[in-house]
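TA notes, week 10

Several of you asked for a full example with nothing omitted. So below is the full record: structure tokens for the whole chain, then the designed sequence directly under it. When grading your own attempts, check the secondary structure regions first.
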């Protein structure tokens, strides 16, 4: 079953808040709105033809060397 748009937005905001905190979540959302962010173009420019699994593996390796130090609300 697919999530509704409201459920997706709720999960996304909660993820941002847990990982960025309130202020940086607000800055992130403002930047996306201001910059007319296109996720598909960004992903292609940033990750080329890598699969989701390859990106996940690279992120996990990066995290081992530089763990996330962000705070929670």
């Amino acid at each position: 079953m697919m999530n509704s748009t409201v459920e997706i937005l709720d999960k996304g905001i909660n993820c941002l808040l847990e990982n960025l905190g309130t202020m940086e979540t607000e800055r992130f959302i403002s930047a996306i709105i201001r910059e007319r962010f296109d996720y598909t173009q960004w992903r292609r420019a940033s990750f080329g033809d890598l699969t989701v699994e390859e990106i996940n593996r690279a992120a996990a390796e990066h995290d081992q060397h530089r763990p996330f130090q962000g705070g929670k609300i």
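The longest helix spans residues 5-35. Use that as a sanity check on your answer.
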